[in-house]
Amino acid sequence: MITVHAFVYARPEHRDAYLQGLRDLQATTRANDPGCLRYDFWASIDDPNAFVCIEAWTDMDALTAHLHAPHHIAGSAALDAYRARPSEIQIFESTPISL
Fold first, then answer.
1. What EC number(s) does its UniProt record assign (predicted)?
2. Mean pLDDT in runs of 10 for the chain (99 residues)?
């Protein structure tokens, strides 16, 4: 499984538009990417304009297909006008374990 932590940042004056763009990206990803196991955005408790997308993919091919999919390219481009700074992306090869 591939896990992605995508840290993204909205310009304060465009937070509402940015949130709508994140919702749209989440919906189109969940609807169109069969290799997507999880695609959830979470807000920071310290910075109201900072978010993280926690993603889980069946494999690297599924993630690569997502990154090249028209809905991802368009959704990401639509967010560009509202971004405070570039995203910080961390990609992991992971295996679930039990506690």
1. 1.-.-.-
2. 98 98 97 97 97 98 98 96 96 93
